[in-house]
Amino acid sequence: MKRSTTFAAAVLAGAAVLSGCANTQQPQQIGYISNDSSTYGTIESIQVMQARQSSGVGAVTGGLIGGLLGNQVGSGSGRTAATVAGAVGGAVVGNNVENNRNANPEYQISVRMDNGDIRIIHQDSVHDLREGNRVRLIDGRLYRY
Fold it and tell me: Do 65 and 3 share a structural domain?
């Protein structure tokens, strides 16, 4: 009973740590912001930004969780081997999770607003947006109009 409780606690702790890797950033916008929640303009340029570099946090976190889980298996030298194998496996999985999270590009979209201002909007996708499109800015995100 103690092992299953410890294992369940370790799995829940690992899920909580890895869920902290989720991207919760809001789109950034630079320039004049009116009180109006939607504004109209024309896309002047779209640039793909560099993907973020891996920080190693995923590998470290995965290694710790894998080591904790591996330590729950066996006894003596078998436990040591399971701990090492769990740490190495967890580090590999954690690194892959972090790299997949960082693999999505970010787009920097320059928009000339109808009032003449230029706004730079950062979005995770451009869907059907192209240079020259008329767009509407709603809550920091661009939509064709």
Answer: yes
